[in-house]
Design goal:
Blueprint lengths: L7 H13 L14 E6 L1 E7 L5 E7 L5 E7 L4 E7 L7 E5 L5 E6 L2 E6 L4 E7 L14 E6 L5 E6 L3 E2 L2 E2 L2 E7 L4 E8 L4 E6 L5 E6 L2 E6 L6 E5 L10 E4 L6 E4 L6 E6 L4 E7 L4 E7 L5 E8 L3 E8 L11 E2 L4 E7 L5 E8 L2 E8 L1
Antiparallel strand pairs: 1-30, 2-3, 3-4, 4-5, 6-7, 7-8, 8-9, 10-11, 11-14, 12-13, 14-15, 16-17, 17-18, 18-19, 20-21, 21-22, 22-23, 24-25, 25-26, 26-27, 28-29, 29-30
């Protein structure tokens, strides 16, 4: 998800290991070869390996169910496939820092994939959500991995019945034991993205009731509070700057609202002037200077908008055009100038790779 994961100490240790091995510098991440690759029938969601050589794309399949497709980003060929069951839900992905495990949240199931062997380590149903008799469980809405890779956090809407909704929750999943360890209720009926603040024990949830700050210092997250001024903006979409100094929040209901939050004080330091459009998948560049947003403008089709992350100014000359009618998700490549888009044209789900 383009979040910085290496500490200075880890980077220094890697440099020493490289010197010990003969002074060879680490290879630069690969740049993807521009192409549109068909991966299914819709709902394509990508993640990119740390070295940039592989894209992992989960999408719905024409014959039913979900599948993970592995794409060689240099040749643009699909080099692997793994079925993930009969669900047809939009998926949420989290890839470990070393690229060895891919976590896929689809419907009310969490699947764990060994990326080297392309095998399913296991599939784990979410614990049954507490609810009144006759109510339906809430949909899953977001997934985030702790920086050390030890814990996954999952967002789930509140249970529902006719014209009534309960409170949503954030669940914790221990990746070593592969068990759900607990959940905390959030004072919001609908949740969205989860974002882990780099270098901290802070987790933020986008919700219909505002941006909620949680502490992950213990095994089960605890609610710290809601960021003032975010309660009516429907800030479902979240992304951190790589250094954790700013949190970008974007509306999820076509209202043109966005905000920049200082997570040190949990205050809104700047409002963003965004188009009244279907915006999703905010991503911040590796150097922290640019904010990217997937925009499903009905007149132009899918495109990627670019903003100055420091000032909030729109960089209209840098807008990235796509060949997709609709954009489901977006990932930034580790090379810093390749974007991977999960999109749809008609009844075909695609991975589009653009070197920008």
């Amino acid at each position: 998800m383009n979040k910085a994961r290496w500490t200075t100490a880890a980077a220094s240790a890697a440099a020493l290991l490289a010197l010990a091995a003969g002074g060879a510098a680490a290879a630069a991440p690969a740049t993807g070869s521009e192409a549109v690759i068909a991966v299914g029938s819709g709902g394509a969601v990508p993640a990119v390996s740390p070295d940039g050589t592989r894209a992992y794309v989960v999408s719905q399949q024409s014959g039913g169910g979900l599948a993970l497709k592995v794409v060689n980003t240099g040749s643009d060929a699909v080099v692997g496939r793994l079925g993930l069951g009969t669900d047809t839900w939009i998926s949420f992905l989290a890839l470990t820092a070393d690229g060895s495990r891919l976590y896929v949240l689809h419907g009310h199931t969490l699947s764990v994939v060994d990326t080297a062997a392309l095998t399913l380590v296991g599939s784990y149903p979410l614990p049954d959500q507490a609810r009144p008799a006759g109510w339906s469980v809430g949909a899953t809405e977001g997934l985030a991995l702790s920086q050390d890779g030890s814990t996954l956090y999952l967002a789930q809407d509140g249970p529902q019945t006719y014209r009534q909704n309960g409170q949503g929750q954030v669940l914790a999943f221990d990746t070593a034991t592969r068990t759900f360890t607990g959940a905390v209720q959030v004072a919001a009926t609908e949740l969205g993205d989860l974002a882990v603040r780099p270098g901290s024990h802070d987790l933020y949830a986008g919700t219909v009731a505002g941006v909620v700050h949680l502490s992950t210092a213990s095994a089960v997250p605890t609610v710290v509070g809601t960021v003032p001024g975010t309660g009516t903006a429907n800030f479902y979409q979240l992304a951190f700057a790589p250094n954790g100094s700013r949190l970008f929040a974007v509306n999820g209901t076509v209202n043109g609202k966005g905000a920049v939050i200082d997570p040190g004080t949990d205050t809104v330091v700047r409002n963003l002037a965004l188009p009244v459009s279907d915006l999703r998948a905010p991503r911040v560049s590796a150097d922290g200077t640019k904010l990217y947003l997937a925009d499903n403008d009905s007149s132009n089709g899918g495109e990627v908008l670019v903003y100055n992350a420091g000032t909030g100014a729109a960089l209209t000359a840098q807008t990235i055009a796509t060949d997709q009618d609709y954009l489901n998700a977006m990932a930034l490549g580790p090379d810093g100038h390749t974007v991977y888009l999960g999109g749809t044209v008609g009844t075909t789900g695609n991975l589009q790779i653009i070197d920008y």
